[in-house]
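User: When convenient, might I ask for sequence and structure tokens for a protein?

AI:
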Amino acid sequence: YAWQPKESALMARKPRHPSLEKIVNVGVLVYAYGYMGLMQMACCWYFYFQAPGIWKNLGKSEFNPEEAHTNKVASTMYYYALVVGQISAAMATTTYHESLFKYLAPNGKLFFFIGLEVIFAMLIIFEPTSQGIFMTTGLTAKQLLMPWMTFVAISCVEEIRKSFARKSMHAREVSPQNPLTQRLLGA
């Protein structure tokens, strides 16, 4: 994120004191594991259970070849939904308050690495040696598109959160009460 342009309201935020406030604090951990992580997990499990026939495999300990393939499809869909969830988390965290619709995506390097992540995911899903190592299998076009709903869902939730954050930030802006300050500012 160091190559990224600043948000429009970045200077309105109080700076972090390096000795008093650590980079990884309770707020970051709650965001990563209690908020973003739970959304990603819910999406992953949702798409796992979208694999055709997976419900019939629940509770079984031995599988015929068709059932084993169904399990691989389900776990591959889980994996791909996780990749898409990581992409949506990367996009969501590019700004704190500003909407991605306004900010867009000016960080070309981030997009380059997101592209690499998708390419590596495709290799893990479709390349036979990788399939053997990671226990994945090829997915249909529909199965590859479905997990992108994870991106849509997480992005929508994040836009709502950012909307509330902007309203909260705006509400905290204190109008000057001092008459001299009001005259000097032209209020």
User: Anything to note?
Assistant: The chain has a mean pLDDT of 85. The chain is about 65% helix and 0% strand. The longest helix spans residues 65-92.
